[in-house]
Amino acid sequence: MNKKILLVLSLVICTALTACFGGNGSGEGSSSGKKDSIVVGIQNDLDSLDPHLAETAGTREVLYNVFEGLVKPDKNGNMVPAVASNYDVSEDAKVYTFTLREGVKFHNGKEVTAEDIKYSIERNSGLLESNPEPLVSAFKKIESVNIEDSSTVSVMLKEADTELISFMTVAILPCDYENQATAPVGTGPFKFVSYSPQQNFKIARFDEYWGEKPEMTNVEFRIVQNTDSVILDLQGGSIDIYPYLTDSQSTELSASMDIAVGNSNLTQALYLNHKNEYFKNPLVRKALYYAIDREEIMSLVSGGDGTMLGSALFSGFGKYYKDCSKDYTYNVEKAKELLKEAGYENGFTFKMTIPSNYQFHISTGEVIVEQLKKIGVTAEIELIDWTSWVNDVYTNRQFESTIIGIDAKLAPSDMMLRYTSDYSKNFCNYVNAEYDELCKKAIETVDDDKKAEYYHQLQQILSDDAVAIYIQDAPSRVAINKKLTGFTFYPIFVQDMSTIKNK
Questions:
Q1: pLDDT at position 351
Q2: Residue 222: partners with Cβ closer than 8 Å, 6 or more residues away
Q3: How many domains does the structure of the chain reveal?
Q4: pLDDT at residue 199, as a whole number
Q5: What is the CATH number of the domain that holds 96?
Q6: DSSP, residue by residue, 13-41
Q7: Low-confidence ranges of the chain (pLDDT < 70)
């Protein structure tokens, strides 16, 4: 889990200020012994430095430190003012009015203006001649963006949408700056320093930030795709923070690192391509659901800390979430009956294409392989690099099945739209006219209780159709240098370095 995927644009490798980062990346203060620079291990290379074009969760989690929208989520999931000092939504949910916060500066020293707000929203809405296609699907319904005065901007919608505020996290960019793809400029607590493809992304504290200044002066996000070597890096002190530990890795590191545990806020599932010969049959999909023991997966891979899921949303969506996790209980005999009814009494063979840099998903796949043997189904794991996965699986839909975690903004529509028939991110190729119509109603209603009811119905449809084998909202286990504190979990998938401090 709108924007088109642009993988590894022609990015200029900038090297300014790299001397600020110590040789091992762990930056100790010269007199106090406290850290002023840290290294954070990440699993994926960035797909774009332009936040409006960035597609993958692994990119967004990093760019969160550099860019801000009119609003941003706090750790409790509330949308709080950021570049805007406040906002108002009309009773009919067709007009959103934002007041610009005074004194907010871009990293290039330019003060943010109403023109920058207008440009940033219009760029994502497809309202610019230079950019006629919406980059954010939810912005298709924006009719106009109007500057009311020097500090007030109103957004007029063609139809009601009470969820649009969750999409106003879209980055505010300077309207007269053309180098976002190579030297990005935002308003966040950190500013861009350099980017070396397949190696690292470096940022430095922005001392003119409007809000609370970070304690860390420099942060390097180091791309580490070898999940075995990262343990040695953590133990050796060359990486200070690593947010993607498996249960066994966290146990191995518990003596030398602090381990923080929270929700990943991702929907992990065995996603099935409905154009595949086997998976277009709902009986086959349901057979797999009954044959896969999610509790065993959570025990073996998650250390028992995950939250079992039965549909696309996770509990972080609050009242919109419906627990469908008990709809398919582990039942090998039931699975065999369904396979026989579907005409596959003797089983079949299929491929699970998994990104090679995600050990958590690989381990999940390995458990599933063994579980499906009990019903005569052979699942083969195909490991491919991340770039190939995004191209082949996510974009071109050339796959049979895959295991991945999908993230979303704090608007249920951002996740549920993925299953509408004509949506660009519907990489499972699910088609259901009833689902499409219900999703439209859920988005358009201004009655919040009715909205929640619609989203519950949508989740039940996904469960009843066994659209995917939903597994869990996996635990997020984070290794943290014992000298540091302040790591914060959010109800979205981000790595916020502005809260990191010395103990």
A1: 98
A2: 25, 39, 40, 41, 42, 199, 200, 239
A3: 3
A4: 95
A5: 3.90.76.10
A6: ---TTGGGS-TTS--B-TTT--BSEEEEE
A7: 1-32
